[in-house]
Amino acid sequence: MKSYFSLLMFLLFTSVSLGQTLNLEKASPFTAVKWTDEDQPMVKFKDEWFTLVKLDNHTTKELLDFCKKEFDDKWQKRFSEDLIEVLTKMGTPPSQKVALVLEKDSNQIQVTGTYSLENRQKVYLYNQERRKRKALKNMTYSQAVEDIDQFYGILQGKSSYIHLTDYDMKTAIDSLKARIISTSMDSVGINYLTHELAKIMAEIGDRHSSVKNEWFERKNHATHNLQLPFSMAPLNNKTIALRATEVDGNYEYLHGDFPFVRSINGIPMEVFIDSMAYRSRKAPKQAKLSRGLLEVQQLGDLYFKNNLEPPAKIETVFTNGQTDITETINLVNTPLGYESHIERNIHHNGMDIAKGNFQGIFKLLKGDIGYFSIPQMFSFDDVPGLEAHLDSVLGNLPNTKALIVDLRFNPGGTRDLIQKFAGHIIPESHSPWVANVAYLRTNKRETVHSSMSNRLLYTYDSNHFDDLDRKAIDEFSKSFATERGFDSSKFSQPHYMVLKSGAPDYKHPIYILVNEHSFSAASVFASAFKGLPNVNIVGVTTDGSSGNSKRIHLKNSNIRLRVSTMLSFQRNGKTLDGNGTEPDMPIPVKVEQALHGTDVQLHQLMETINDM
Predict the structure, then answer these.
(1) pLDDT tens by residue, 212-223
(2) In terms of Cα–Cα distance, which of 602, 604, 251 is closest to 408?
(3) Is the Cβ–Cβ distance between 435 and 476 less than 8 Å?
(4) Three-state DSSP state, 504
(5) CATH topology of domain 21-133
(6) ∠143-149-153 over CA atoms, to 5°?
(7) DSSP letter at 575?
């Protein structure tokens, strides 16, 4: 009887769906589409803006990946204005009604939308209006000063890390306004203002914050794409100059007897990076060098972001530490940025996992060492099947004598994997374990903030915690103190990430392998488990950073600000931003790894484990 009823309902649903076949070539369930800094779509539905999570059976990522592959540089236009064509080419022509999963303020809802020509026309007109605004390249002095004052007010009212910095932002703001007013130009360029505000933002120390002119067009700036005619990489806190060999992915020294770059145009490399590559100025030491070199590689772009014209000739001094050679070079339009075998393999593994191919996520190394490769901090909602696969693998870990979790080159993401691994990593003797403390910049201290719970962070009195959790927080709080004080009246109550052991917890040593490119949630992962008796952080200090950013546009220029509203502290009281998580067992990159991609760090770690 039950089977008959199910079949009847299926047939009824099918007949209704067939009756709603869409006959329009141009239609949309949205009335507008705009794009975030990460090129993710925000859709307007019933006069509210949402992040699009899923459309029928397609995730947003699937839709965007198809559009990028099929429509090249017109992929955003096609996604927003020609959704029917996109879905039809994907082999899933839509019906009149569409199931939408939308997200706002970290809360997801599922709604039913309707494709209509009227909606699509509103999307088209919205795009047309935004395209017209691209023509705005300059503004008046008074408009620029008004935007600068708005920028200052936003940071004063919403920024979190402004309360931890000694940077004199007021003086910097006044100086910028004075320079603008005293200039002899007829107007103020949007790009100029963007870059000057970005320099100020970078000094605050919050690496999730940024300033962007969303309408910047590369084609209008001939020098923007100019790059150095050789590759650069960090090695032992120095810069080496490289060129690619005929063996794919391998490198050799540009000048064999003079491997290091001493200076560019008479400025020592470390000074050049610090003064020009301001976006990474507040990063931990190793991350500052690595990220700074990526920016210096694209020298035309770097000069542009400093509101400077690149010199016609670049005088570069190469050295072996004892003697130097000098070479005058021309910039080129060919991308020659450095990427090691290891980074490339990790990136490809990440793409495979995102597509549902989980073969590269775990393997058994020599000596019965379990090895996890975690290229991104994946969301289980975005990668169906991943959680079940991890549960299966984690359940068999007792057969190994040690475990390595590799988070190198992991740019971050969600905290799903932190909670998943916690049940196996945290010993029962140390559960519950207070892993992270954070404060939200807000005047509503008693409010429950969903943006924090999305990060596994809850207040002491939250229903999420039980008496054992609160007891662990009480014990932890006896010795916890933030490295720097701040005005707590401008922030929420403290929020705690409390992790617990599960069944079974892993009884053998665990090594979390990180480098200076382990960022955001990946760095939180390493920090969360640091200090446990069975855990060693291995490799290079992470890039840290743990933000909760909000996007705001300035009134006249439409410059987009991203401002982080959260202070995030490690167990030692230091912020993740600017400090990162230091390794218990430092293993730096050696020359064989930099040039040939030999994974010296992993091999050295394996030798250490197998010698025990």
Answers:
(1) 998 787 767 778
(2) 602
(3) no
(4) coil
(5) Pdz3 Domain (2.30.42)
(6) 140
(7) B
How far apart are alpha carbons 545 and 487 in whole angstroms?
A: 21
Token pair 């490198």: residue: 251
Look at the chain and count its residues: 612
- Residue 30 identity: F
* 3 state SS of 170: helix
Please compute the mean of the pLDDT values over residues 596-607 and round it to a whole number: 95
Q: What is the CA angle 124-129-134, rounded to 5?
A: 120
Reduced to 3 states (helix: H, G, I; strand: E, B; else coil), residue 123 is helix
Q: Closest Cα partner for 353 from 332, 371, 376?
A: 376
Percent of the chain whose predicted confidence (pLDDT) is above 70: 94
Helix (H, G, I), strand (E, B) or coil at 31: coil
∠ CA 441-442-445, nearest 5°, is 115
Q: What is the CA radius of gyration of the chain?
A: 26
Q: Are 307 and 192 in contact (CB under 8 A)?
A: yes
Residue with structure tokens 């060693």?
536
Residue 144 pLDDT > 50, yes or no? Answer: yes
pLDDT at 37: 58
Q: Is the pLDDT of residue 371 over 80?
A: yes
Structurally, at CATH architecture level, domain 340-431+502-545+580-612 sits in: Alpha-Beta Complex (3.90)
Contact 462, 470 (CB under 8 A): no
Residues 6+ apart with CB under 8 A from 323: 258
pLDDT > 90: percent of the chain:
71
**Cα gap 279→269, rounded to integer Å:** 16
Query: Comparing C-alpha atoms, which of 257, 269, 208 is closest to residue 577?
Result: 208
Structure tokens at 576: 């993740």
Q: What gap in Å lies between CA 374 and CA 361, rounded to an integer?
A: 7
- Residues 86, 66 contacting (CB under 8 angstroms): yes
Amino acid letter, residue 140: T
Let me know if 531 is exposed, middle or buried by CB neighbors in 10 A (0-12, 13-18, 19+).
middle
Cα–Cα distance, 90 to 62 (Å, whole number): 10
Nearest CA-CA partner of 599 in 589, 584, 611: 589
Q: What is the pLDDT of residue 11?
A: 35
Going from the C-alpha of 203 to that of each of 207, 210, 267, 301, the distances in angstroms are: 10, 11, 21, 20
**More confidently predicted of 67 and 504:** 67
Q: CA 609 to CA 369: how far, in whole Å?
A: 8
- State the Cα–Cα distance between residues 295 and 303, nearest whole angstrom: 10
The residues, ordered by sequence, that sit 6+ positions from 215 with a Cβ below 8 Å of its Cβ are: 133, 134, 136, 190, 558
Nearest-angstrom CA–CA distance, 304 and 66: 33
pLDDT in tens, 272-318: 999 999 999 999 999 999 999 999 999 999 999 999 999 888 999 99
* Chain position carrying tokens 């969903």: 450
Question: Mean per-residue pLDDT for 11-24?
Answer: 49
- The answer to whether the beta carbons of residues 367 and 610 sit under 8 Å apart is yes
Q: pLDDT at position 185, please?
A: 65
Query: Contact 430/530 with Cβ under 8 angstroms?
Result: no
What is d(CA 563, CA 277) in angstroms, rounded to the nearest whole number? Answer: 20
Domain boundaries, the chain: 21-133, 138-207, 231-329, 340-431+502-545+580-612
pLDDT-derived band of residue 454, with 50, 70 and 90 as boundaries? confident
